């Protein structure tokens, strides 16, 4: 590659990186400035971070919302990883004539927007007296076609000879899955965990519908509440968005290497 092409490439990548980071920087600046400064578009960090934090704590139960969001996302992530990985493993390892048909139906389900099935789901859970329960929050998204497909693709790279050798040695099917498949597919699990946790944490529509009491408030609900009323304190709003962003950013940055490896491995 010539020197001119390198300069152009690095310049382009630098500009794209700055554009990607700018919303995060603007969010941080907004959380440290007064509402009027945020409206004016000030791009320099201010000195109102503590004031905005105190205002947020005085108007919303930030600790409860953070705990509810973390609990919901963590429990849903653990159960979803277990269910989807077992399903993807079973679709690939065990041979059956109808499994491709079932997989095709699952993939077709990805084309249906959640808003189209939200009302039937709500009526079903209402008739089952499951409103305001963790089960009602988790069941519609505990198994997603995307994650099942990703684990199925990853299972294709899992050596079948090892499975046959383990069966001959007397290892059970459950033992093969937990003692051999899971440790081998750590990068895939990391990628799936990142996707599931971020999706569960940022989910707003379904929790807003099914979790109707104030004790079940999540961070997306809290941020939406900050935009209510006749006037909006944009400094406080940016502070709420900052706290809503930090956990997902930490999860992604901690698992970004495994996330890239898992996504790449599932596509091969």
Explain what you see:
This protein is mainly α and 268 residues long. The protein has 14 helices and no strands. The chain has helices at 3-31, 35-40, 49-59, 62-93, 99-109, 114-127, 134-138, 145-155, 160-168, 173-184, 186-202, 205-210, 219-226, 234-267. The protein is globular, with a radius of gyration of 23 Å. The mean pLDDT is 88.
Mean pLDDT score: 88
User: Could you give a short account of the major beta sheet?
Assistant: none
Principal-axes shape call: globular
Helix content: over 70%
N-C termini distance: 28 Å
Low-confidence segments: none
Number of strands: 0
Estimate the strand proportion.
under 5%
**Helix vs. strand class:** mainly alpha
Please compute the radius of gyration using only Cα atoms.
23 Å
Order of helices and strands: HHHHHHHHHHHHHH
The number of helices is 14
Topology (SSEs and partners):
Blueprint: H1 3-31, H2 35-40, H3 49-59, H4 62-93, H5 99-109, H6 114-127, H7 134-138, H8 145-155, H9 160-168, H10 173-184, H11 186-202, H12 205-210, H13 219-226, H14 234-267
What is the gist of this entry?
The chain is mainly α and about 270 residues long.
What characteristics describe this protein?
single chain; 268 residues; mainly alpha; 14 helices; globular
């Amino acid at each position: 590659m010539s020197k001119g092409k390198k300069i152009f490439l690095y310049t382009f990548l630098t500009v794209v990186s700055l554009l990607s980071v700018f919303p995060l920087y603007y969010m941080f600046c907004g959380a440290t400035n007064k509402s009027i400064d945020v409206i004016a578009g000030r791009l320099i960090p201010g000195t109102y971070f503590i004031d905005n934090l105190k205002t947020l704590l005085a108007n919303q139960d930030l600790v409860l919302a953070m705990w509810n969001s973390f609990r919901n996302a963590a429990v849903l992530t653990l159960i979803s990883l277990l269910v989807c990985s077992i399903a993807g493993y079973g679709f690939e390892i065990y041979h059956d004539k109808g499994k491709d048909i079932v997989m095709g139906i699952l993939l077709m389900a990805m084309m249906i927007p959640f808003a189209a099935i939200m009302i039937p789901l709500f009526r079903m859970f209402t008739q089952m007296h499951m409103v305001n329960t963790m089960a009602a929050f988790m069941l519609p998204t505990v198994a997603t076609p995307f994650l099942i497909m990703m684990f199925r693709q990853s299972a294709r790279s899992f050596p079948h000879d090892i499975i046959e050798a383990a069966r001959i040695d007397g290892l059970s099917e459950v033992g093969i899955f937990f003692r051999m498949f899971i440790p081998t597919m750590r990068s895939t699990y990391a990628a799936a965990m990142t996707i599931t946790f971020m999706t569960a944490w940022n989910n707003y529509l379904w929790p807003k519908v099914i979790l109707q009491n104030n004790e079940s408030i999540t961070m997306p609900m809290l941020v939406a509440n900050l935009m209510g009323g006749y006037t909006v304190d944009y400094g406080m709003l940016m502070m709420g968005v900052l706290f809503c962003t930090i956990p997902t950013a930490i999860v992604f940055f901690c698992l970004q290497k495994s996330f890239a490896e898992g996504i790449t491995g599932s596509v091969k």
